[in-house]
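Page 42, continued from yesterday. The earlier attempt failed because a stray header line got pasted into the input along with the sequence. Redoing it now with the clean sequence only.
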Amino acid sequence: MDLSQRLGGAEFAPDTAYLNTSNCGLLPRRAVAAVQELAAANATGRRGGGAGSFESVEAARASFARLTGVAADRVAVGNAVCVHVALIAGSVPAGGEVLVPEGDFSSLVTPFAVRGLAVRQVPLDRLAQSLDARTALVALSAVQSADGRLADLAAVREAALAYGARTLLDTTQAAGWLPVAAGDWDYTVTGGYKFLCSPRGTSFLTVTEQAQETLVPLHAGWVSGADPWQSTYGPVADFADSARRFDESVSFLAYHGAEQSLALLEEIGTDAVHTHVTALARRFRRGMADAGHDVVPAGDSPVVGAPGLGGRQEALHAAGVDASVRAGNLRMSFHLYNTQADADRALEALAA
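This time it went through. Structure tokens are written below.
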């Protein structure tokens, strides 16, 4: 019995061949129940008015930290990746260059551009070689949203170290299936609603202790205080000495769900998810090659881009396959709730 069969009946209930996690992951039943419970409390005034629990936020923070290999005090929580990136953009010295891959996701790139920083875009496979003395920060996604390509993370880190550049890694399309060592990067940002199977409105920022020294908590509020309940009025006088100083005020509904989703991923283990999803993607790539279709070379990525097939999305939907189109590519993304039957149904629909 494979991973998806063991979990499908207990936690997930897809009513289609859902190959669209790169757009939005499915919520496990336990997360749905947690959100519904809090929503009911908000409707009735139970649980002190039903606002939500900081304990759930802290549990989600701790789970994410364990999944990405850092201490919980290195993790800040928020609502959207672009807000975390905008915070980082505020720390880049005026005149400093930000190096990014061509075509990387807008939320990772735009905050630097609107601040007026010099943003240089180069091909993903030339990113490490393109760092030089001008580069203040190199920012990239571990997995490209448009087509699933994997970055050469070791080469980028090595080049950044040689030039003294800060590093920012977006793991939104990676965390949950790809082993991530967040501590290897000055900053990481992650949207929780894709491969982490959490509600939209959950995001995570990791900051090394060294990088924290030059990062200003520009959107600080009472939750950023060393003692939040003593920081509710007037300017915060004493910030948390951890990455919590960069917290946003979060949606409790989203984080009550995230607590449960991240706990499930910890129970399963990233290595098990990695084995499962990459095997499904390899099966799908083989079938595409046998049918004469090109796919974007993406190595062992569960995100598969098929150039020129974007027009087949509606036909796939009619066959009960949910996929997306990005940058002209038909994009399939496999996760723990998918089966070999899902991959085969997509191949059959594309052959029709």
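Notes: The chain has a mean pLDDT of 94.
Reminder to self: strip header lines before submitting.
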